[in-house]
Amino acid sequence: MRAAEDMLREAVAAYQAGRFAEAEVGYRQVLRARPTSHLALYGLALLSYHAGAKVQAIDFVRRSLRFEPNVGLTWNWLGTLYIETDRPVEGSAAFKRATDLSPELCEAWCNRADCLIRDRDLDGAAKLLYRALACPLPQSRAFESLADVLRRLGRVPEAAQTVSAWLVREPTNPIALHMAAAFSGRDSPYRATDEYVRTHFDGFADGFDSVLKSLNYRGPQLVTAALRAAASRDSMPLFPAILDAGCGTGLCGPHVRELCARLVGVDLSPKMLHHAQQRGCYDELVTAELGAFMRSRPQTFDAIVCADTFIYFGTLAEPLTGAHTALRIGGPLVFTVEALPQGDPADHRLGVSGRYLHSETYLRRVIGEAGFMVESVAPQTARENAGKDVPGYLVVARHQ
Ligand SMILES: C[S@@+](CC[C@H](N)C(=O)[O-])C[C@H]1O[C@@H](n2cnc3c(N)ncnc32)[C@H](O)[C@@H]1O
């Protein structure tokens, strides 16, 4: 009879080659020969996870930890699984155990900080993120989170220093470059680069919905209400086709779906789109830059919504011209942006949040220049920052 070690080696090789069914048979054989094999239990956890059975994965990881309890990485993964299955208290305890056992594990410190951010304890999160940066291999994520938390705490010079230190370590990192421009006010691109958008949102995709919920985000409700009002003005029960430009994880989808026969989403971030796909309310999802995409689909849509996405553009001429091309005559374009403070003479500015702010005067001008009629530019707030409303505008424009 083969030794358990040989069976385990073969099962791991099958798993690594993507032969999951064979790997499962192998791991179960190992367990019959050696019921305490933590590696076989860990392997079965991985297979459960791949199959989407996260609760079962938790069960296998916990059994694995019973026989090998001192592996920080395994506690860190258990914590992640708890978070993904809405068990934040157990998640937080598992991450704590991970940092106790493996204080050099930057990811586990970041995960602990994320738990505090969700609980709105930003001071506590900043302390943990400084600890994360003291690890031998600090991750980009630790720099990004710390800069963001410090900014939200109003500790802007410290946040800027964090970004400078990050740039020294990773001079070509697109997020560090974008944030350096945001804090310095110099070299701001005319819109966030594709690399920034993809890297930032791919990294943010899994936590996006819960973070936006904690910020009391209501962009989807705002654009949908405005679109519904536009439809009733046109006595139009249903739009044949709507584009959700910068659809992200698809938070607008369930609302807008009720207003149209066909719903298309476009976004640059594949991981955000993966979540939108799982929501199941889009007829088509496209990975593309939204300006280029809209120019490639002339007169295709009867309405366009764009919630919290033009905040990644400084100059709006390009996406607005694209929207004008993609809309059929008379179609409404509804979007949200953040507002420049009164008295700021600029048209738009990249703020320290990494998002662009626009003036009402500029919005009215650029919308008109792109061939739209402005129906309304209403002061509105789509989300909070550190418990305070972020001033913005809800804009309705009409293709003409
Ligand atoms: C803050 S999220 C908003 C997502 C969604 N509209 C919502 O309301 O939840 C902004 C989204 O815009 C996308 N985005 C930003 N710039 C883009 C561009 N130039 N082309 C396509 N997508 C872009 C990002 O990838 C991200 O998913």
Q: Can you describe this structure?
A:
This protein is α/β, with parallel strands linked by helices and 400 residues long. The chain has 18 helices and eleven strands. The strands form two sheets. Strands 1, 2, 3, 4, 5, 6, 7, 8 and 11 form a nine-stranded mixed sheet that branches. The chain has a two-stranded antiparallel ribbon with strand order 9-10. α14 (253-257) links the parallel β1 and β2 (260-267). α1 (4-16) runs parallel beside α3, α7 (106-118) runs parallel beside α9 (140-152) and α11 crosses α12 (194-214). The mean pLDDT is 95. Bound molecules: S-adenosylmethionine (SAM). Residues 192, 197, 201, 219-220, 246-248, 251-252, 267-269, 272, 289-290, 307-309, 312 line the site of S-adenosylmethionine.
